[in-house]
Amino acid sequence: MPFVVDHLPGLSRWLVQGESPLPALLEASGMQGSRITAALIEGMERHVDVLDAPTVYALVGLIGRHCGPIDTAQVMARYGDRLVQRIPAYERDTWDLTDMPTETVGGLARFLYALMGDIDVRIRWRAAHVARRLARLGDPGVIHKIVELYGRTSEPSFRKPDAPFYWLAARLWLMMALDRIAAETPSAVGRHGQWLLEIASDNEFPHLLVRSFAKSAMCRLVESRVLVPDTTQRDALQRANTSPVRRKKSRKPSRRSFDRYRHREHEERRFHFDPLDTLPYWYSGAVRQFADLDSEEFLNVAERWIVDHWGVQGEIWRWDQESRQGRFSDYSASSMHSHGSLPVLERFHTYLEWHAMWCAIGELMQTRALAKAGEDYYGTFEHWLALECVTSPPLWLADFHGSKPFEDRLWFAPKENVNAWVEDVGNDDYLAELGLVSDDGTIVVGGYYDTQSHNFMLSVRVETALVSPDTASALVRALQTADDSWDYRIPPAGHDLEIDAIPYKLMGWLIDVEHELGIDERDPLRYGVRAIECRPSHKTETALNLKFVHNDQARWVDASRWNTVFVYEAWGDNRGDEREDRLRYDETVRSSGWRLRADKEALSTFLNEMGLDLIVEIEITRRNKGYGYSRHDEEKTKQARFDRVVLLRRDGTIEAAEGRLGTWTASRP
Predict the structure, then answer these.
(1) Which helix (H) or strand (E) holds 172?
(2) What's the gap between Cα 339 and its chain centre?
């Protein structure tokens, strides 16, 4: 220790950078913490004139590592008191220490559950991801503690004590997290199976979405055989969140819409419902799910939940009554729910309206008939409910987000002059977009992405279809003479542009999947990624004996040999909680998009068995400005769009309108 005192300036020279030998020397000394701290304090006192401020702070941190608990508590108490005295009394927060958890698991559970009830939907999603990852890491203790918090309707310690706690949102996001965990790590929630069944069957709190996710989680536990229900439980699970009333044909919607509600005078209502967005979009859609329900009756039930069950009084719809004004902007679009969308930041008034709608539906469906739809699934109550849940269950949209491919054009700006780059597209660029410059044994058969910064933009689209070999060359030449690539389309399976008239055949083999984003649209960790945008058609799946699997990546495998035939990759660099207007002048290169890759060997075998070739369209768009640009930049903006149609022949050659370009089955040298 005397050596440390004498040579402290030299020993601590690189302590700030983490490269000093001092911490390791102290650990190796075997001295008690009190001896070490005394030596460091003496050394700092002796050499105070030569130690700079960053090193002093680093040494204080090092002393903290070796302080005993009593010394640490005394320092914390003194310093904490000094900080408190600097805060005016009227601005100080106070806590009920008896309400604070005394162990780590309970404290973390309270913290996460409080965040699941945040006014910012993106924060709720982050908390749900934390719960899910704890389960994946084999640490379900926090999950068990969060489940115990389900009944809390107030949170004075981990939330603003004089503002409402969004406990309804906390319950919903907890159920969504448990549903995802039940599909992914069922053993982490298996012990809560009976409790989930009770939530799914709870008519005292008939929140349709909460019960739906609870039922789904229970079903996943049964499917994984983590839980083996008895006959009584199976019957209860089947009845959960369903209507016991026979469905009826819907009557004429004379009083089943809120389109003209804004023109009425309803001063007698105890709660002010938003007539611009809530009633015509949210509530009208809910009322139409019933066969003969009057809109006023629905409002009565929703109002009863808000006022009588939840005890909300007063003109909370007014801005001056919003208790968290600091987290909103009066003109912020993020708090709006126009045309039935979900807001990013929920005002208390909007939060109540949305959850009251789900409780009203759950209550009414126990006594009122749901509307009877046709034989088609679309238009049914189940279809409507599915649209309000996660987009692609059991997966979350964030599950489809993967690593950005390691290709220079997705990471870096063009090296050459950007104006020259805009117009310089050659055959190598087209082949690169098919993935033929790599040697991973796959080829891109569908995709769309864009890469941009403030200074440039690159957009690429790839579409493919099956084509008859004898007439394919003529089709390629004809399409390449089109003035605009948007005047035609390489069709997906089932499209009106498919051709099947001997000797002409142009048939889709992939499906363009259209999705209406569900409640996970606001998940910032999806990074703009949507559900699967393109996948093999049913005929293609049958011909190749494909089975869809998702193990951190979407794939289609040969069900007999389990080798991968198709891989779906999606990526994005922009979080869902970033403001897009701040990106306009950002020179950081960002990319987002998706690709469907096919195994070359499997594709070659498939084409030979079908007796067809593959026609491919590659569209490349380049611009010397990224994102949105103002009218002041319009004269300087330069954009060019290039479109190339080629054939992937069964014999492995690549053919364009002017002749052979190379091969696609062999690896490039």
Answers:
(1) helix 167-184
(2) 21
Residue 596 DSSP SS3: strand
pLDDT in tens, 406-460: 999 999 999 989 999 999 999 999 999 999 887 889 999 999 999 999 889 999 9
Tokens 């309804």 belong to residue: 168
User: Secondary structure of 486-497 in the HEC alphabet?
Assistant: HHCCCCCCCCCC
Give the CB-side neighbour count of residue 104, counting CA atoms within 13 A.
2
**Is 568 buried (19+), middle (13-18) or exposed (0-12) by CB count in 10 A?**
buried
Strand 659-663 with 564-572, pairing: unpaired
The CA distance from 584 to 625, in Å, is 10
17-37 b/e (C-beta count within 10 Å ≥ 16 → b): eeebebbeebeeeebeeeebb
d(CA 9, CA 584) in angstroms, rounded, equals 48
Q: How far is CA 149 from CA 7, 108, 145, 199, in A?
A: 54, 12, 7, 14
Type of residue found at 300: N
Kind and range of the H or E run holding 505:
strand 504-507
Angle at CA of residue 397, ends 396 and 399, nearest 5°: 70
pTM above 0.90, yes or no: no
Task: Give me the helix-helix angle, 208-223 and 231-239, nearest 10°.
Answer: 140
Pull the structure tokens for residue 571: 């990526």
CA–CA separation, 18 vs 639, rounded Å? 49
